[in-house]
Amino acid sequence: MQSIEKYISEGKVLKSRKVLHFGYVFNYDTNEADERADLPIPDSCNSITDRMLKFGIFSKRPDQLTVNVYEKGNGIPSHVDTHSSFGDTIVSISLLSDLVMEFRDFANSCSVYPILLPRYSLVAMKGESRYKWKHGIAKRKYDVNPENNRLIQRTYRISFTFRNIAKQKCQCSFMEYCDWDRDGSMKIPETAEQGITIEKNYVRTVYEAIASHFDKTRHAQWWAVSNFLNELSPSSLLIDVGCGNGKYLIRNNELIKIGCDLCYSLCEISFTKGCNVICADALSLPFKDSCADAIISIAVIHHFSTYERR
User: Fold this and answer.
1) Whether the predicted pLDDT of 49 surpasses 90
2) For the CA atoms of 121, 127, 132, 135, what is the dihedral angle to 10 degrees?
3) Integer CA distances (angstroms), 245 to 11, 210, 249, 267, in order
4) C-alpha dist (Å) from residue 108 to 76, 103, 111, 112, 187
5) How far is CA 23 from the centre of its chain?
6) Ranges for the Fe2OG dioxygenase domain (predicted)?
7) What is the rounded distance in angstroms from the CA atom of residue 113 to the CA atom of residue 146?
8) Does one domain contain both 71 and 134?
9) Extended beta strands in the chain, E state
10) What percent of the chain has pLDDT above 70?
């Protein structure tokens, strides 16, 4: 603390905090950190970085330090540290005040985990927590301790964030969240073959992995769909394309129902519920033309990656 106190007044003032950069400067306009800072990382930090190296938190000594100075009640918006600017490990040390940091899933904003950061604690972000989860601090003067639901009063706080500057483009396995498109591999597909590849990697693979959880959370039938099915005559043949867990196939009515889905795991789940189901591609259905009285395809088309396939 003493080694940086004399520089605090010179820090750059942002909306809700003051920042100091050592080693390299992070440019908040370009999200890059390729400019040398006027000041090196203080020698007083060596004992901390030595311990982080000893315990394998970092594989090499950090070469960039950002010091954030927060007045009581201030915070920082949820964000992911830029993939291409920094290495695979981010470490933040909290000083002077306890507080709660929130982690939010990039893919599901409803998935939020509050984590207590006691004063003098260290949080290390690697893998998913580094690349896929946003972290942030809400602007408020009190936090609720997630461990005992007691109120925590915030005070003046300083954090030290240690990172390594990236020397090459990001090679993380979280491409859909990365700021580098892998030389065009993440762009909108231009051909049907490219579209099929993207759908296989980011639709079929995901649904095979989450089928069990999907089944537990998808029970409610959409009102408009239910009304449509209720208007069909008894003994009508209904085909549900993209039937998922079979929620429209298990209705207690007099319809003849057949479902299909490209996800084998969801087909298995539907089959265990007594549904007539086959594993099939919605764009290559194994049915004769005009064989059904009605066809539904609910929340399926948006999974196709190109306009032509939709």
Assistant:
1) yes
2) 10
3) 55, 12, 9, 7
4) 20, 11, 6, 9, 22
5) 30
6) 61-166
7) 9
8) yes
9) 12-13, 18-22, 24-27, 32-36, 64-70, 76-79, 89-95, 99-105, 108-117, 122-126, 133-137, 142-144, 151-153, 157-163, 237-241, 256-261, 277-279, 294-296
10) 93
Q: What's the rounded mean pLDDT across residues 239-243?
A: 95
How far is residue 203's CA from residue 49's CA, in Å, rounded to a whole number?
Answer: 41
CATH number at 67 reads: 2.60.120.1520
At 266, is the secondary structure helix, strand, or coil? Answer: helix
Are 45 and 159 in a shared domain? Answer: yes
pLDDT in tens, 209-240: 999 998 888 888 899 999 999 999 999 999 99
The per-residue pLDDT for 134 is: 93
Domain interval for residue 283:
192-303
Phi and psi angles of residue 303, each rounded to the nearest 5 degrees, phi first: -80, -15
| Residues 139 and 235 occupy one common structural domain | no
If asked whether residues 147 and 210 sit together in one domain, one would say no
- 257-272 pLDDT tens trace: 999 999 999 999 999 9
Q: Identify the CATH number of the domain in which residue 298 sits.
A: 3.40.50.150
Query: 228 and 165, same structural domain?
Result: no
Q: How far apart are CA 10 and CA 254, in angstroms?
A: 76
Rounded to two decimals, what is the model's pTM? 0.63
In a domain, 50, yes or no: yes
Clarify whether residues 44 and 157 are in a common domain. Answer: yes
Looking at the DSSP bridge assignments, the partners of residue 86 are: 165
